[in-house]
Amino acid sequence: MDLVIALMLLVFGVTGGNADQPSGVADMLAMAGNQGSQVAATPSGAVSDSGASPDGKTNGAPAEYVKKDPQPDAPKIKGIYVTAHSAGGSRMETLLKLVKDTDLNSMVIDIKDDNGYITYPTANPDLLKLGTAQKYIRDVNKLMNRLKADNVYPIARIVVFKDSVLAKKKPELSFRKGNGTVWANGRGESFVNPYRKEVWDYNIAIAKEAAKLGFKEIQFDYVRFPEGFEKKADFLKYEKTKESRVDVVAGFVKYAKQQLEPLGIRVSVDIFGYAASVPAAEGIGQDFVKISKYVDVISPMVYPSHYSTGWFDVANPDTNPYATIKGSMLDTNKKLNPIGSFKPVVRPWIQDFTASWLGKGKYIKYGKAEVEAQIKALKDTGVDEYLLWNAGNNYSPGVSYK
Question: Are 5 and 277 in contact (CB under 8 A)?
């Protein structure tokens, strides 16, 4: 069955990170492929199946690692995605009113966005060595004070390895073509190299500043290699070690958790919704279980529009949000229940947008009824937290979020 599912995934596209429209074809489950052409120092914290780090120390062994939730009394989160432009602009008032007038209680706000920009004018020299700050959120302290006053649980979204800004600024930290120029995908996006410890530390430094600003949780997105990377690895120049892509990505997550837990903030990771239903995606370096062991919260992106024909016995999954979400959550619980105390809070991203690009007959218009159907499916499978995604922050009116 695993082989059948893997072959199915090779014929359709999946979205990288959070986005409304599928952004390209990804061979998620390719199990082979060379991983680069150069050798570098191994990032501290990379883990193998045995839990041992590359230097032979057992700093990741499950028998020794005890996961602690730094916020055991945190509320059940029901939140919305907020772009930096919305957070720093007049639209924020509308979004705050939505949260205040409903059972929503949280906002996921871009602190490092999909381009790689830090979204507020930081003066932190450690961040500016590699990062580039913008003024989308002109007064981040004012924003945080407002969220606190309105009792909104603040989550900082940090896009990690998709980072066109850093790739162009420091090509040696990225993937390069034979002529030395920075590689970009078909949408003009570049990624930085998960094998480079400098990249790890840079993103964690942003997370630490977000914690000082008052964010209670850090949500890492794009914690992976580019889509279809196994097909590109032989032709790109980048530093690497003998560690697998899966182990390096899991190693970053573990390292981030170790660094941030003492600050009292939670660590969460966005991951493909498909990951709960299939074997590890070796090509992009995502293993659902390995990543879940080292986070407080896992957020699978289970948008019905991102499942192809036939998933969960539904001809067109986007047209049946209840069945699609229920199927994805049953698979999620089946995958994570065996890890016992290592199981994180499951807080999926659900769909509040219309996927018209799927074509006639394969999609429906999403609104109140469709959002509520997804929430009911979560309840019926024992999941009581969720996040709503709409890239433009235009959320459906009249939804009951109970």
Answer: yes
Hey, is 2 helix, strand or coil?
A: helix
Cα 362 off chain centre by: 26
**CA quadruple 84, 89, 94, 99: dihedral positive or negative?**
positive
Q: Which residues have a Cβ under 8 Å from the Cβ of 73 and sit 6 or more positions away? A: none
φ, ψ for residue 226, nearest 5 deg? -60, 155
The tens digit of pLDDT for each residue in 95-110 reads 999 999 999 999 999 9
- Residue 212 C-beta-side C-alpha neighbours within 13 Å: 8
Report d(CA 26, CA 230) in Å as an integer: 10
pLDDT of residue 63: 46
Give the span between the Cα atoms of 65 and 341, in whole angstroms.
11
Integer CA distances (angstroms), 216 to 73, 109, 199, 267, in order: 12, 12, 22, 9
Instruction: Give the C-alpha separation, 3 to 8, whole Å.
Output: 9
* Buried/exposed 214-251: b ≥16 CB within 10 Å, e otherwise: bbbbbbbbbbbbbbbbbebbeebbbebbebbbbbbbbb
pLDDT score, position 53: 37
Q: In whole angstroms, how large is the CA radius of gyration of the chain?
A: 20
Q: Which of 8, 65, 19 is nearest to 253 (CA)?
A: 65
Q: Model confidence over 33-54: pLDDT tens digits?
A: 333 333 344 454 555 443 333 3
**Confidence grade of residue 280 (pLDDT, cut at 50, 70, 90):** confident
Q: What mean pLDDT comes out for the span 236-241?
A: 96
pTM here? Answer: 0.88
Please choose, from the candidates 348, 353, 303, 272, the residue with its C-alpha nearest in 3D space to the C-alpha of residue 108. 348
**H helices of 190-317, where?**
197-213, 229-232, 245-260, 288-293
